[in-house]
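subagent[fold] <- orchestrator: predict structure for attached chain, return tokens only, no commentary.
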Amino acid sequence: MPFAPGSDTLQRYVYTLVAVVLTVVVLYYGRDLILQLVVSGLFAFLLLPVARASEKRLPRWAGALVATLLLVLLVLGLFFVIGWQVASFGKELPVLQERFATKGEWMLTWLEDQTDMDRRAQIAWFNEHLSGVASWGGQAAVKLFQGTGSALAAIAPIPVFVFLLLLLKERFRTFFTRLGTTREGAVLEVMVRISALSRKYVQGVFTVALIFGSLCAIGFALIGLKYALLLGFLLAVLNVVPYVGALLGSLLPVFVALVTKDSYSAAIVALAVVLVVQALDNNFITPKVVGSSVSINPLASLVALIGFGMLWGVAGMLLAIPITGMLKVVCDSVPSLEPWGYLLGEEIETPKEKRFHIRFKRKAAEAKK
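subagent[fold] -> orchestrator:
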């Protein structure tokens, strides 16, 4: 029985839909291994110059080991600083609880003056509604500790993956070279572009986080806000998540200022510090440091953020932008996928990129012949 008109288009649509569904299924159920490989790959791209520099004086395995140990030392140092700040926070927790109770007493008095509810009715209302919140908070705390153990178990293999990726980098290069030039372009050139993009993006993100956190910590310290270093670090981490992180980050110093300070103007000043640093970051720091390494338009960024967040949670939100940037590189490099790369991007193509695409199209035409 012959196919009806348009059946080829319908077949392509069905095949594409099945491929997308299967890809989502694999990404969801294989998320633990895929996340480990993606994070390890990003770190390997970042440490590639260190490994190559070390290999000039050391054997290949030693160069890979030096780069991996550098990564481990940096992470351990970061955890040490965080643990020191958290321990300091824990020592003053009873004082904070007392201050919070005092603030709550003031709020009850203010509500009693502004409404017809007396103190007893207010306490009964709060007990009724906050009991569910407390129960949810306890469950969330249990899940957090359970998740922490799972997170540590997931993080543990990453240094091993990074070491092996750096050790076998020449083998991967040979592998992509042997894949040769397909009818869509040279595979090795695509991977080189992805490597350069990933390295620039990760370097930019770490640099921006360091500058952002330092500026926030200095601003909080100048206004006398406690836990300035811890707050600066938390805001720097949250700022990595586009859109959502900046909103959540602005609430933390305000809450700490309300609890630890007697004057409510301190909360306003703390919020002003965050807004000023965010304005500097959006207009000067990020454009100068990260630049156009991942030129994804806001719509594509938001869709990627939500989609990877649904698949992989917070880790997916952190990795959404670099993964989408890699996908854009592939789309830009493959002639048949160029419309999708144009849809994802926001930049104007430079003459250098035009020459790159022309070279790929020429190779594709030669391969077809």
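orchestrator: received. Logging for downstream: Residues 277 and 326 are 29 Å apart (CA to CA). The chain is about 85% helix and 0% strand.
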